[in-house]
Amino acid sequence: MRKDYENAMIQAAIAVDATAKKKYSRKLGSGARFRKFIDENEDFILCMALGGKTRILVSGELTFQRRGKISNILYKYVRNPLLHEGDASSNIVFTSEPKFGHFGDKVIVRDTTIWGVLLSVIGDPINNRCKLANDLEIEIEGVSLNLNSLWGRFDNIKQLLNYKDIPNNFFHRMREHTAEQ
Prior knowledge:
By secondary structure, this protein is mainly alpha-helical. Helix content is 47%, strand content 12%. Helix 1 (5-23) crosses helix 2 (30-40), helix 1 packs parallel to helix 5 and helix 3 (42-49) packs antiparallel against helix 5 (111-123).
């Protein structure tokens, strides 16, 4: 089976746009809303991107070699080229290896990053009344997830994936803790 990462990321970006538009002030532009949503879900998305077993201790803000935060990478280097130009920039590489970020002149996006973004959308309480037309069950890290049973239930998603020990703002709190020392 061919894995169509570009199309999957397009769908994830559209889902973030729709969720962020419902969740935040329409006075914010689409870029600001997209980045805000990704920033709020950065911990979960990065844990998904890195396989869930990684803890990152960062002093200051987590950025990727002059390309900015994860929200900027996903917006500027992934979302925009896909939605506005119809394909990924030649600088974007999708991979199944446990990597995310800027390596040389390439932006590496792990396939599970897409699931991190989509599950953040599905789990957001603003979407608790949403439903897919057909029941869809996916498997991530050996865990089966029925997506229709998880709309608006982010804590359940994290518990099922054994990410329950990764609280919201985990990296942010670690940065604050590190800065206090």
